[in-house]
Amino acid sequence: MYVIGTAGHVDHGKSTLVEALTGINPDRLAEEQRREMTIDLGFAWLALPSGKIVSIVDVPGHERFIKNMLAGAGGIDAALLVIAADEGIMPQTAEHLHILDLLGVEHGLVVLTKRDLVDDEWLELVAEEVRERLAGTTLKGARQVAVSARTGAGLDELKQALDGLLAKTPTRTVERGVPRLPVDRVFTVGGFGTVVTGTLLDGPLALGDELSVEPDGLRARVRGLQTHGQKVERALPGTRVAVNISGLPVDAIRRGDVVTFPGTLQPAEMVDLKLRLVADAPRALEQNDALDLFVGAAEAGCHVTLLSSDELAPGGEGWVQLRLERPLAVARGDRCIVRIPSPSLTIGGGRIVDAHPRRHRRFRPEVIKALETLERGTPAELLAQAAGEDGPIEWSRLRERSGIAATDAQAALDEALRTGQLRRLDLAGDGATVAADTLLIAQSAWTRLAGLIDATLAAFHKRSPLRAGMPREELKSKSGLRSPRAFNEVLQLLEHEGTVAAGEQSVRLPDFAPKLTGTQRATVDRLLRDFAAAPFSPPARQEWEAAGADLTGYLIESGQLVRVSPDVLFSHEGYTKLVEWTQRRLDEGGEVTVATLRDQFATSRKYALAFLEHLDERKITRRVGDVRVKY
Ligand code: GDP
To answer: Helices 472-479 & 484-496, crossing angle to 10 degrees?
Structure first.
């Protein structure tokens, strides 16, 4: 699923376009949400010719646009820059383009709207102007499509163009760690309580998850989840979600808060970043200037410390520390925008490299050097990178491979585990000490591995619907995990998470149970009747073989028949009676022979012998000459 944001000057036809594409009027969503019982997400979606589903976020209002563009680390996959063909580039067009550029949005289309109002010659002039303006931005060379919502002209071409664009756009539905949901709306829905919406980042969110709302650290729980108006049990990162939260009143949460797991996100009071100023900023930035910082769906006033220069000129770039007027729930790596308060204007942006810095002194080469190192990655990130896409790796080997200093290793590991970039396979819990041979795995590799095992088991169940589960060895070889220890720990963890049910011999999906067809049921019933009719002289091999290996295998695996030798099966009941009688006799100090057993149960020598040999194997009896005694 992709999230697309619309950008462009007011009245250039954004809402009309979204409605023409999706049939959903974004302006009416707020009202619908109040009326409907379902949780509405406040955004529209459509299926493209390829079948891809895209969400279109069209937020009216300029400030809201900026926050929306920012929701998370560039919360959109691609942008639609909407420009009315009759007016061309206007001030907000230019500013939105700056923002897309500062946020590093590389995928986008230009939509020239109101095609019906201009002639071909005019359209070509506007297209040329736009081409020139895009040059030197992240959207350079973006395709332009002219449409008219009034006549419908160009809409099909636009959908095709979106498909073409998204085919080249990587999805962000990758799991990198703990989920974060920058809240862009909070409201109540009658009978449900508090609902928040946003674009989910970094990790999946599931029903029942324990939550905290930052920066205030309030505790809550996921009571309901929706994406696209559909109830789901688990939402994936990269998608628009609505979360019904239990435990908090609506006024406890504000737009800009971040919903995440408790203890994983510490609010920032200062942030360090390399700030880039737009080339047409009205003036240079000076030490201690007041700015407005926008990160995710949040906003805060701040003051700037220029760390390596007296001023930052338009078009320039430099390291800064921003001192926030109130704590914000932001994380390293988040993209941000800064605006000057008056005239209120976007002047720059960048990517946060440290969300919990110390207060820096200016003009210190060692500070700049440390920031430049940090730009390449924190020790925790370097660990997660080193773990990479490979399977589980022992802590001692990972530490070596990452090349991080021994003194940083423990803190880096704690951080990587806390933020979910790495996970440990043993069930010791995140707080427990990690030993040199503790197995660790990068979150992304874990997601892939868990997905592979899930798919392998699903395919197995489909292929062998009567088997209780996939043999462990077979699953192990499919999983690509060579080490038995790693495989066992992976299974234990998956079982702990409730994604598989692992038995001694086989593994299955938790909700799978063998299911017989009508004819199979009839055959099984007939066979079991035959076994029940003569529990101690059960049907001969050719009789049950005629029912098929699948069905007898199923009856044995499910314990309804017991195999004592390749040729002899007993019903569960018959077998139990034989065992009980033999054991009682042995307990009373007696012996058992083939003949006594045969006479007692009026069976044949063949069955009595097979049964007693089976008891020898099970170490219940021991053979001494012609008699069996207690083992
Ligand atoms: P937004 O502020 O960018 O969301 O713009 P709207 O979608 O509200 O459109 C602004 C105005 O332009 C409305 O009066 C629309 O009816 C009109 N409009 C939108 N698209 C077209 C179009 O393709 N042709 C014409 N002639 N008018 C349009």
So the answer is: 100
Pick from 54, 129, 23, 45: nearest CA to 86: 129
**Coil, strand or helix: which one is 346?**
strand
* Distance from the alpha carbon of residue 143 to the mean position of ligand 1, in angstroms: 21
Ligand 1 centroid distance, CA of 493 (Å): 54
pTM for this model (two decimals): 0.66
CA 347 and chain centroid, separation: 34
Tell me, what DSSP letter sits at residue 27? G
Q: What percent of the chain has pLDDT over 90?
A: 63
CB 456 within 8 A of CB 490: no
> Which atom of ligand 1 lies closest to the CA of 151?
23
Q: How far apart are CA 205 and CA 221, in angstroms?
A: 11
Token pair 């390829």 in the structure block, residue:
50
Residue 318 pLDDT level (bands cut at 50, 70, 90): very high
Longest distance between any two alpha carbons in the chain, whole Å: 109
What would the pLDDT profile of 244-285 be if each residue is shown by its tens digit? Answer: 999 899 999 998 899 999 988 889 999 999 999 998 899 999
250's enclosing H/E stretch is none
DSSP-based three-state secondary structure for 273: strand
Residue 88 tokens read as: 């061309």
CA 625 from chain centre, in angstroms, equals: 65
Q: What is the rounded radius of gyration, in angstroms, for the C-alpha atoms of the chain? A: 33
Strand pairing partners for 628?
Answer: 592, 623
Block residue for tokens 């680390």: 73
Pocket of ligand 1 (CB under 6 A): 10-16, 113-114, 116-117, 148-150
pLDDT tens by residue, 553-595: 999 988 999 999 999 999 999 999 999 999 999 999 888 999 9
Q: What is the pLDDT of residue 495?
A: 95
Rounded CA-CA distance 252/60 in Å is: 25
Residue nearest to atom 17 of ligand 1 (CA): 13
Strands 108-113 and 78-84: parallel
